[in-house]
Amino acid sequence: MQDIDEHHVREQKRDNLRKKGIDPYTNELGARVSCHEAQERFEEWSESGYLVGLAGRVRSIRKHGGSLFLDLDDGSDRHQLFVKKDKVSKETFELVNDLLDIGDIIYTTGILFLTKKEEKTLQVGELKLLTKALLPLPEKWHGLSDVETRYRQRYLDLIANPSVQALFYERAAIIRVVREFFEQERFIEVDTPILQSIPGGATARPFMTHHHALDIDMYLRVAPELYLKRLIVGGFERVFEIARCFRNEGMDHSHNPEFTQVEAYMAYATYEDLMDLVERLVVNMVKAVHQKTFFEFEEQKIECGESFSRITFRDAIIQYADIDIDQYLTFEMLSTAAASRGVNMKDCTSRAHVLDQLFKTLVAPALIQPTFVIDYPLELSPLARKKNENPFYTERFQLVIAGVERVNAFSELNDPVDQLERFKEQETMREKGDVEAQRLDMDYITALQHGMPPTAGLGMGIDRMVALLTNSHAVKEIILFPALRPKTDE
């Protein structure tokens, strides 16, 4: 009710402004500097009497008779303004005193000076309203105590919590480090289709849409992988893409249906080469954010200064689940053993599902320090090259840090006959009800028939890495507009 009354009062002020011939939504302003620059160059400009122009949002108004103090925030910093009745025009003083509200956006010019309390201040000479805010800013903002409002109205979160803005500046810096790293490693950045006629490159349920001009169903990509490998066939030796991807799956602290990842493919390389490359990439990212090779995440010290640990998928299951998967070769045998260890078997319809659940439930949470889990079972890796010495396993690894997969990589399968058979197996799984099984992509098979050199590829979740490096518990914290359940009237 209070907000409704406040809205009405502000609407009346807007109308009064228009009656006075003042446009409450003008774009007329002169030269300006940032509040940060005004703070940084305060001594120089105050001594010279330099006329400074500032623009930003009013964050507070304090009235003292014929004087007013305002705090101005432009995103770079805050700066105090001083409005003295006998130093400005009557119209300007009435505007500030009677019609200005916290949240309004203004432009002002004046001279810098130091108050008796030694506060850096701009004495206003002229002031112009740029935007009238019709709704108030939150009076009391308790950060995480109102998570839903923060995510739904991210603009208020950014206004009220400077630390949130800082978080997204850090995200941008991390992405810049990733891009510069791959460019320095001689990769070329490319773009591949987001709308695809066949979703491929990852085991995931896609989002579907319809292209009316072509009258065909299309899908938002679950991964750029198959297109990037087509480029390797075409002659590019090293390619990468910072890709927006979409998977029609559940949401939790490490999943959002729309997410950002980097995928990179390197010809004439194996997954062993990628482990070395990933170590260097992660260390670069950690140093960029923390200026050292270790950091804190949820009260755990994560150390990235030395070579990361390595353990095979099979040995990890033996160590943390006390199950030797080579001794449980059927779905029934393995699911019974997994259930006896407390693993949720709901929705598991294949041995691959059980293997995945075993790993996610019992292994990953135990891996806090950076660990390469290598040599994944064939069932979990439809696009990875088989190990020469054991065709039931593949040359694949995942980098797990703080209990969550951060990087997925493998030596690529370049045998078109083998790839076709695995696609057919995936189609069989899909026909049995597995909505995440991969689809048969005959054009990709044709590409492989033209010959793809030995290649290794990786995918790294940008959102998960940013959350890790900024000590954010959930990826929603570092996605500006995360997916949320629609808000009901209730």
Examine the secondary-structure arrangement and name the CATH architecture of the largest domain: 2-Layer Sandwich
Anisotropy-based shape: elongated
For the biggest β-sheet, the strand order reads 6-10-11-20-19-18-15-14
CATH topology of the largest domain: BirA Bifunctional Protein, domain 2
Q: Stretches where pLDDT falls below 50 for ≥5 residues?
A: none
| Percent of residues in beta strands | 25-35%
Rg over alpha carbons? 29 Å
Say how many strands there are.
20
Number of helices: 15
Describe the structure concisely.
This protein has helices at residues 2-19, 35-40, 42-48, 90-99, 147-152, 154-160, 162-184, 225-233, 271-290, 313-321, 331-340, 351-363, 416-431, 442-449, 462-469, and strands at 51-64, 67-73, 78-84, 105-114, 120-131, 188-189, 195-196, 208-211, 216-220, 238-246, 258-267, 294-297, 300-303, 309-312, 371-374, 386-387, 390-394, 396-401, 404-411, 455-461. By secondary structure, it is α+β, with helices and mostly antiparallel strands.
